[in-house]
Amino acid sequence: MHVRPSTDAMAPASDMPETPDTPETPNTPDTLDTSAAAPLLRLSGVARSFGEGVGAVTVLRDVELVIRRGEMVAIMGPSGSGKSTLMNVLGCLDRASSGCYEIDGRDVASLSDDDLAALRREHFGFIFQRYHLMGHLTAQGNVEVPAVYAGTSKTARAQRSAALLGRLGLGGHLSHRPSQMSGGQQQRVSIARALMNGGDIILADEPTGALDSRSGLEVMQILCELHARGHTIILVTHDPGVAAWAQRVIEIADGRIVRDRVNETPRTDELAALTRERTQTQSRSQSQSQEDTHAGQVAPTAEETAPQTDDVTLQKLPSVEARRRWFAGWPKFSESLSMAWHALASHRLRTGLTMLGIVIGITSVVSLSAIGEGTKRRVLNDIGSIAPNTITVLRGRDFNDDKAAEIRTLLPRDAELLAAQPYTDSVSPQVNARTVRVRFGRIDTDAQVHGEGANFLRANGLKLARGRGFDTSEVERQAQVAVIGENALRKLMPNGGDPIGQIVLAGSLPLRVIGVVRDRSSMFVSRSLNLYVPWSTAASRLAGQQHLEAITVRILDGHPPSAAEAGIVRVLTRAHGNKDFFTFNMDTVVKSISRTSQMLTLLLSFVALISLVVGGIGVANIMLVSVTERTREIGIRRAIGARRQDILRQFLIEAVLVCLMGGAVGVVLSYAIGQLVAFVVPQVAVVFSVNTLAAAVLCASVIGVASGWWPSRSAARLDPVDALARE
Fold first, then answer.
1. Nearest 5 degrees, angle CA 374-CA 376-CA 379?
2. Of 3, 232, 545, 601, which has the maximum CB count within 10 A?
């Protein structure tokens, strides 16, 4: 498409001709001599029908029309005549049902949707009767939108939009929203938007229909000035007064062009006075713009910010593939992100309520996962503190064997045999007496007396607080010595004092205290009072037996517990002649508890995930409502050059942004809840892992994409003309 030598939004008033150029008077009033200029737009036998079959309605019928570069044409007709449909076809907002429409010699039917969007973006400018501005954007923001889709840099957009608005007398209204401006001001904003990317062809649909007479005259003056600068102006109106401004008037009725005539006396007599007044207004506006908009710097003129003026034909437009590669980059994503943010910020309450479902879901998932992970670690640590890497040999087939007490084959030599194995770290034979009465001075209480071997501290993972443990010689001679637990010490000596060397009575057996062992702080350990004595002493002096009740074997670090367990079973079975014992492997318990904890965490997370899915459905629902509410906005964006994928990207980013913000709030809230739980209930451990947080972010992103895809796709599939027609 050929671009005129200058794409200025407006020349300075002093440089503007007072009246637009008019074509040479033809020989007949109803025909136009078109030999002077090449055809820009050509319609041949164009028809447009809606519906199918017997219910089809034909709006345009066999339209033949040629519009040449630089013309100012008015398409006039009553309501229902088809003039708006013709404008939509001319502006590539709609496609003809039949016939041929050529722009600069290229058939529009051969162009893809992206190519049509590029035409609207780079060569067409639309001025609508109802302005069609986006309410959440400022005047400058509305004007910049076409340049956003054209890939213009932010700085260049700001400079050009400010210059255009300044030339149109709105330099002091850059930050005003449409609701803060009059109808005439809004229409001037729409004119500036139409010129943002050059606006070679201006399509004005009833440009003065919603304005008072004064504002209408100003708008028509601007259009005439644009025509004088080389723009092709197409007016669509039912008002003969508006059509009188054009040099050529095309009358349409019942979908057919009934008359195509030259206007020999266009309304140019009113331009001179309006031009003088408007020059004064522009001067004041530009002065205000210099102070308010650019901090004292002179706003760049339209000439300085205009696109390049090289001749560009339709065939030289960048290919669709090239544009896709450019728009797939970060600049386009950042612009879509910015537009999505502004759209969400303009409906804060709705955005907040939409986020609420995601916040609840993410908070539930992260909190339950953190509590589950903390509980699992607490359990495993407690088990590890009880008996790290140990295997216990007990009498009978299992814990429920009623005949286990009758078995007498577990003997001290079995402990010696196991101690000699290569996988053994330490061994402690065990004889557990029943609860006995323990007395010290005036204190009399119940306590558990445990008969253990000389290596019981190592085998059971116990640590001394003071004193020492008993040795092998004390075991062999059945020494009456004891190592007591800290709980027992506090009970027997509430006033403190040194227990070492003190005598306590276990039943009628006097025991000399030689050490104090630290009690374990574990949910699996009884808080009862414990006394540890040599197993030989417990067997002969308290239990009255010679056999053992259990043997605790600690496995060497790094040796597989399962292999050691198999070795223990093999050795003792050979020694006993049969398997009259069973083993209890703490490693198996740890794995079992770990699996159970994971299953419980997954179950709780699944329950919490339901709320997250419900939140995602809420996002999808709100996005569908948003698409319905913003149909006109979608139509505006499509009309000024947005492609389907641009609309899809923006709405999809909005959905993902809502979910990511909800996810971030959910993570912070879950962390706060975790700290509160840990403060109120110290026994409950809360552990936030990087994997959990990463999963939360991923989950929020997936929910955002899943919930936003269908609404975004629905928005992208809207035709511009259908979207603009909806209110």
1. 110
2. 232
Looking at residue 461, the DSSP 8-state letter turns out to be T
Residues 20 and 268: beta-carbon distance below 8 Å: yes
E strand intervals along 574-688: 581-585
**Taking 80 as the threshold, does the pLDDT of residue 284 lie above it?**
no
Q: In 3D, which of 408, 390, 361, 526 has the Cα closest to residue 458? A: 390
Residue-wise burial string across 155-165, b where 16 or more C-beta atoms lie within 10 A, e elsewhere: eebbbbbbbbb
Residue 271: the pLDDT is: 60
Q: Which two tokens stand for residue 677?
A: 């739980």
Identity of the amino acid at 723: A
Phi-psi region of 177 (alpha: psi -120 to 50; beta: other; left: phi over 0): beta
Nearest CA-CA partner of 513 in 464, 460, 462, 576: 464
* CATH among 3.30.70.360, 3.40.50.720, 3.40.190.10, 3.40.50.300 for 13-24+72-82+115-315: 3.40.50.300
Mean pLDDT value across the chain: 80
Q: Per-residue pLDDT tens for 81-111? A: 999 999 999 999 999 999 999 998 899 999 9
Nearest C-alpha neighbor of 637 from the set 219, 329, 336: 336
Residue 312, phi-psi category: left (phi > 0), alpha (psi -120 to 50), beta (remainder)? beta
How many Å from the N-terminal Cα to the C-terminal Cα in the chain?
A: 34
The two three-digit tokens of residue 283, written as one number: 């001067």
- Number of H helices and E strands in the chain, helices first, is 23, 21
Concatenated DSSP letters of 40-63 = EEEEEEEEEEES-GGG-EEEEEEE
Cβ atoms of 457 and 516 within 8 Å: the answer is: no
Question: Do 538 and 449 meet the contact criterion of CB atoms below 8 Å apart?
Answer: yes
The pLDDT value given to residue 325? 47
For the segment 490-544, what is each residue's pLDDT rounded down to a tens digit?
999 988 888 999 999 998 899 999 999 987 765 545 567 889 999 999 999 888 8
Torsion of Cα atoms, 646 then 651 then 652 then 653, to 10° = 90
Question: Of 263, 253, 255, nearest to 78 (Cα)?
Answer: 253
Among 262-276, 293-307, 392-406, which stretch is predicted with the lowest mean pLDDT?
Answer: 293-307
Nearest CA to 41 among 112, 96, 81, 117? 96
- In tens, the pLDDT along 562-618 reads 899 999 999 999 999 899 899 988 777 777 777 877 787 778 777 777 877 787 787
Asked if residue 573 lies in contact with residue 566, where contact means CB atoms within 8 angstroms, the answer is: no
Sign for the pseudo-dihedral over CA of 267, 270, 275, 281: negative
Query: From CA 718, how far away is CA 617, in angstroms rounded?
Result: 22
Q: Give 259's DSSP letter.
A: E
Q: Which residues contact 637 (CB under 8 A, 6 or more apart)?
A: 145, 149, 646, 647
Residue 429 tokens read as 């034979």
User: How does pLDDT run across 668-693, given as a tens digit for each residue?
Assistant: 998 888 888 888 887 777 888 787 77
Q: Which residues lie closer than 8 Å to 399 by C-beta, 6 or more apart? A: none
Distance CA 285, CA 401 (A): 100
Spans of all domains in the chain = 13-24+72-82+115-315, 335-379+592-725, 408-579
Q: What is the pLDDT of residues 151-161, one digit of tens each?
A: 888 899 999 99
pTM of the model: 0.64
Choose from 100-104, 129-133, 350-354, 460-464 the range with maximum mean pLDDT.
100-104
pLDDT at 326 > cutoff 50 = no
Degrees to nearest 5, angle at CA 714 with 711 and 719: 145
